[in-house]
Amino acid sequence: PISSFTWLILYKEQNYKLRSKERAEVLMKLLWWVVHDGQDFAEQLHYSPLPQEAVEKAERILRSVVYGGNKIL
Asked: Which run of H or E residues covers position 56?
């Protein structure tokens, strides 16, 4: 398959429209998994794993997401 980056847009502040803290935490755990443990499936699915630079950038972005001003990760 042809693969490329997929962009995801999310609010830095996850406390919006009655969104629960638990829902925001689950989302962030899922995205962290995609960037880390999910990469273990890349080779067997014939995709390229994320380059280290992309992983580091994703980590910085994911760690900056907050709920009520408090970091989630």
From this structure: helix 52-63
Please name the amino acid found at residue 14: Q
Q: Which two tokens stand for residue 48?
A: 């390229």
Give, in degrees to the nearest 5, the angle at Cα 54 between 34 and 64.
75
Token reading at 28:
């962030």
Mean pLDDT of the chain: 94
What's the whole-number mean pLDDT along residues 44-62?
A: 94
pLDDT grade, residue 1 (50/70/90)? low
Read off the amino acid at residue 7.
W
DSSP 3-55: ---------SB---TT--HHHHHHHHHHHHHHHTGGGGGTTTTT-PPPPHHHH
